[in-house]
DNA sequence: GTAGGGTTAG
């Protein structure tokens, strides 16, 4: 008997000597056998259980206590937090306070973490009050946890309104990590005060609180610095973040992997690859360059600096890759326009058994949008739904965009309508979708609806609405929107907005006005702004202005292929063969070659490409066999080949043949002969659809009774029953 | 008690 009492005493004095579940249970049994299980000893056993993460055993014993001591409460609360049972941790804390027990500094870090994960700012603040009253705000761990809470719950976004903090809760939730899912009650306690409704602060709300806590902590450690640096970095206060990193250099606290991976995104944002490389070098010297966090930050930093090869190299040297490392490179490919590689890597990621999370989908779906591959886009959509990410606002916005860019505006609208909340990005995606499909009026009314619902349009939204106006010729409306940017929304017009207005004026035939507008822009016009006017000059057959405009283009960009081709076309259609020849000679001297026009169509899991005039396609005979009678029928119905756009200096008969071989016509024909009657044909083209093909496809849609959708590089054309959705305004 | 990747844009 006495020997077992000695044993108990030794174990109680050194509880860490108990390393296994069976040892803990033996100790518990000894207490029961010797009838010495007091409140204090029970608390010690509970703390031993919780240290071994034996929540169930701890709770069984805990429930037998009538008035549990602080040690028992603390252990249970910490264990709940460790197991991601945040709401139960908080409930226990509240209960402990109600029972009159006074918390000590050991319990606050867990409680604050639970408040953070539950996004319960109200409770967190009252805990803070309690901490101050107990004079525990000097405690290092408590202070660090407090800073983290304020940074997470108040510190996101550079300018944030209090009302918005609460609106964004579902998104913030996903950002806090997947462990939220493990709690029993995901519903955050939201006590939104009326007076907190929509006050916009110019400074992120939380960072001020973070700084106050930081200043109170008397002795700071590397975690304190990392927490406040991350807070500044994520609030867009980059200079303050970097200032603190430098300040660390004056102490004996040295930047570690956490510090670096908070700082690297700043240099991504600044596109400062020199500083980024310095950090990379520091990481190598410290021997932490293989860290997964640093690795993905480096991949991202190099990708954002257009050095995707360096991203690939960092990625290939990573010892371990998690889903974020993979996704950083997938996203990097997308950001650099390497869409096929993005899709390839995404596939590789999946075959490597790394489960793509929500972020991976919102990175890769835009690749489908750019490639206009409805087939892959639909597959990803299915994958998204199976993964349970259907209500993620980032993913939904990218799906809206994907469906509209792949030609299915109705599917885009359906997804948009099913979203619970719309932010400026999702609104912009659907508005741009209608704009590209030529439904300018619908786009404009959606823009108005967005404003009515209190969502402030950003600069991209203005690009979308101006594009919508431009595609249907809403000149007055466009001016209104253009001017409201500065007057109502405090947004500066940027190149894209000027370009959209210039495009609008040009399309509307107000060529001189467009010329003046571009000449007086407050931003230096680029070659592409002038190029849109040049194509308007071509559409409205104004050769004189076109020559002026092309000179402007060549003075900015002497190798602008599009301008050469358009000018050649215009000279050709005016019979000015000499000028055309001169221009072509210039092109040849510069070694410029015309980008081949090509079109592609997806059929049965395969993409079929057609290059203008290329007769090598294995189905060429069948295509011609199909086109011949259709062309004859077209001519009976009044089709006359418009050969004015044909560049080549050849006779009329030959020109007709050349038009015959245009890539979009081949792709449409191929689609029709390889699908069931009535199937919609979707064709994508790399440059603007040709004028004659536009007429021809209208006839083809009528004769074959097919809906034909052609996406060129600027918009969609829906051909149906002999007419096009653009109503020939393009 | 701390860190990394994401949606809309001629």
From TrEMBL:
Keywords of this entry: Repeat
InterPro entries attached to this UniProt entry: DYW_dom (IPR032867), E_motif (IPR046848), PPR_At4g14850-like_plant (IPR046960), PPR_rpt (IPR002885), TPR-like_helical_dom_sf (IPR011990)
Gene Ontology molecular function, alphabetical: RNA binding; zinc ion binding
The DYW domain, residue ranges: 638-730
Annotated PPR repeat ranges: 221-255, 322-356, 423-457, 560-594
One GO term of the biological process aspect: RNA modification
Top-level taxon of the source organism: Eukaryota
PANTHER family, alphabetized: (WILD MALAYSIAN BANANA) HYPOTHETICAL PROTEIN, PENTATRICOPEPTIDE REPEAT-CONTAINING PROTEIN
Family in the record: Belongs to the PPR family. PCMP-H subfamily.
UniProt name for this protein: DYW domain-containing protein
Source organism of the structure: Capsella rubella
Highest classification ranks of the organism: Eukaryota, Viridiplantae, Streptophyta, Embryophyta, Tracheophyta
């Amino acid at each position: 008997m006495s020997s077992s009492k000695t044993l108990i005493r030794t174990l109680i004095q050194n509880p860490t000597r108990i390393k296994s579940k069976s040892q803990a249970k033996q100790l518990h049994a000894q207490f029961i056998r010797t009838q010495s299980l007091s409140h204090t000893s029970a608390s010690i056993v509970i703390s031993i259980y919780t240290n071994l993460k034996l929540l169930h055993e701890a709770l069984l014993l805990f429930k037998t206590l009538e008035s549990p001591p602080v040690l028992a409460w603390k252990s249970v609360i910490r264990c709940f937090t460790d197991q991601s049972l945040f709401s139960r941790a908080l409930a226990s804390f509240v209960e402990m306070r109600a029972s009159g027990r006074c918390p000590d500094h050991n319990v606050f870090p867990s409680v604050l973490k639970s408040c953070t994960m539950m996004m319960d700012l109200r409770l967190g603040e009252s805990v803070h009050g309690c901490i101050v009253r107990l004079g525990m705000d000097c405690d290092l761990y408590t202070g660090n946890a407090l800073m983290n809470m304020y940074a997470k719950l108040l510190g996101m976004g550079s300018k944030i309104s209090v009302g918005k903090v609460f609106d964004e809760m579902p998104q913030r939730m996903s950002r806090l990590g997947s462990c939220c899912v493990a709690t029993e009650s995901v519903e955050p306690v939201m006590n939104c005060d009326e007076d907190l409704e929509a006050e916009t602060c110019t400074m992120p709300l939380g960072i001020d609180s973070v700084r106050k806590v930081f200043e109170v902590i008397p002795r700071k450690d590397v975690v304190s610095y990392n927490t406040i640096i991350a807070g500044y970095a994520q609030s867009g206060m980059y200079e303050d973040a970097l200032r603190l990193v430098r300040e660390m250099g004056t102490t004996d606290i040295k930047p570690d992997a956490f510090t670096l991976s908070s700082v690297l995104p700043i240099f991504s944002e600044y596109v400062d690859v020199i500083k980024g490389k310095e950090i990379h070098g520091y990481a190598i010297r410290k021997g932490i360059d293989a860290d997964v966090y640093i690795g993905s930050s480096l991949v991202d930093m190099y990708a954002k600096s257009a050095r995707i090869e360096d991203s690939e190299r960092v990625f290939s040297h990573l010892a371990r890759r998690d889903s974020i490392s993979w996704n950083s490179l997938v996203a990097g490919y997308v950001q650099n326009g390497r869409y096929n590689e993005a899709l390839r890597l995404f596939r590789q990621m999946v075959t490597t058994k790394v489960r793509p999370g929500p972020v991976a989908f919102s990175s890769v779906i835009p690749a489908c949008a750019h490639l206009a591959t409805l087939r892959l886009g639909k597959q990803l959509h299915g994958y998204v739904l199976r993964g349970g990410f259907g209500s993620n606002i980032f993913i939904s916005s990218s799906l809206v965009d994907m469906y509209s860019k792949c030609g299915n505006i109705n599917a885009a609208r359906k997804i948009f309508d099913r979203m619970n909340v719309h932010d400026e990005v999702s609104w912009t995606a659907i508005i741009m979708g209608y704009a590209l499909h030529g439904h300018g009026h619908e786009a404009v009314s959606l823009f108005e609806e967005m404003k009515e619902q209190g969502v402030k349009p950003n600069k991209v939204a203005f690009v979308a609405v101006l594009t919508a106006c431009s595609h249907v010729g809403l000149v007055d409306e466009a001016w209104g929107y253009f001017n409201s940017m500065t007057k109502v929304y405090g947004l500066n017009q940027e190149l894209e907005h000027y370009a959209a207005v210039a495009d609008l004026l040009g399309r509307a035939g107000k060529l001189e006005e467009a010329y003046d507008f571009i000449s007086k822009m407050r931003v230096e016009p680029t070659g592409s702004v002038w190029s849109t006017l040049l194509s308007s000059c071509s559409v409205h057959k104004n050769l004189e202005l076109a020559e002026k405009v092309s000179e402007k283009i060549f003075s900015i960009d002497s190798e602008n292929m599009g301008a050469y081709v358009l000018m050649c076309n215009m000279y050709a259609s005016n019979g000015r063969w000499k000028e055309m020849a001169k221009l072509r000679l210039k092109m040849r001297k510069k070694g410029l070659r015309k980008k081949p026009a090509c079109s592609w169509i997806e059929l049965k899991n395969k993409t079929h490409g057609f290059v203008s005039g290329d007769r090598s396609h294995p189905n060429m005979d069948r295509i011609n066999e199909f086109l011949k009678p259709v062309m004859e029928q077209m001519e009976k119905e009044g089709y006359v080949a418009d050969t004015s756009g044909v560049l080549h200096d050849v006779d009329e008969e030959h020109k007709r043949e050349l038009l015959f071989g245009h890539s979009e016509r081949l792709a449409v024909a191929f689609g029709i002969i390889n699908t069931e009657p009535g199937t919609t044909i979707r064709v994508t083209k790399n440059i603007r659809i040709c004028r004659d093909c536009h007429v021809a496809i209208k006839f083809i849609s009528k004769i074959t009774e097919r809906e034909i959708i052609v996406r060129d590089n600027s918009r969609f054309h829906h051909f149906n029953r002999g007419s096009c959705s653009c109503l020939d305004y393009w």
